[in-house]
Each structure stands twice: as C-alpha cells, then as structure tokens.
Amino acid sequence: MKPCGYYVLVKVEEVEVKSASGIIIQTREGAEREFTGQCIGQVQSFGPLAFKGLAGGKCKTPKDWGVEVGDMVEFNRYDGKVPHAEGFSNYRLIQDEHIWAVIKKGDCSKKLHIHDENA
After folding, report:
1. Contact predicate 5/47, CB 8 Å
2. Residues linked to residue 45 through DSSP beta bridges, in sequence order
C-alpha cells in the first residue's frame, strides 16, 4: 500500500492484555479498543508530498523532518484511518504533521502491555 498526498503509512504496535500473573486475557472488543487508542508505530512508507514544505518551506523530504522508513514514531492517540484493504488491519494512514516524535531504540518496549489488576 502506498499512501497518497501528505499521508504516512504506519504499522501500529500490537496490544497484549495480561493479568498480573502474565496470562493473556484479551477479548476481541477490548483489544480493538486498545488498538484504536494506540499511538506508537513503525513507519512503512510516505505519500509523495509527506513533509514537503514544512518548516517554512525548508523541508523537502521526510528525512529533512527527521523521519525515515522503519522509524518508530509517536502520533496523536486515535489519529489516522485504518485501511480497509485486506492484510492492513494493523496499519494506519496518518497525516505527516500528526507525527510528534521519533522513538529511539530502547525508549519503548516492542509491545504495549496492559496489566489487569482484577484478573
């Protein structure tokens, strides 16, 4: 999938729901709700206009903005559109300006863990 315009294709991190003892207790509805609120993912590709013209016109490529394919990024919670294409349910199309940070290796875990104290 190749984004159009100013959009960036981001693969969103998977969500695991674990009990305090480490048992995965994930319901489909709960996992979908947590996925929708997820705000960390890996950049897969850029639309042809992504990041161009930002910073007062100085930005010519995503790299000028500090973002590259493969980077882990943080974006607005609940932002973007989930593509309907088969095989892309873990992805979001996000506007370039809605990516707030590049996360360096070690700044976050591979998966988001939510501990349910009641389980």
Report:
1. yes
2. 9
Amino acid code (one letter) for 53: G
Six-digit token pair at 76? Answer: 């607005």
Residues 44, 50: contact at Cβ < 8 Å?
no
d(C-alpha 48, C-alpha 22), whole Å: 43
pLDDT digits (tens, 9 = 90+) for 10-47: 998 766 666 677 776 665 566 565 655 678 899 999 99
At 57, which amino acid appears? Answer: G
Who's near 106: CB < 8 A, 6+ residues apart? none
What's the full length of the chain, in residues? 119
Show the domains of the chain with their CATH numbers. 7-116 (2.30.33.40)
Mean pLDDT over 95-101 rounds to 92
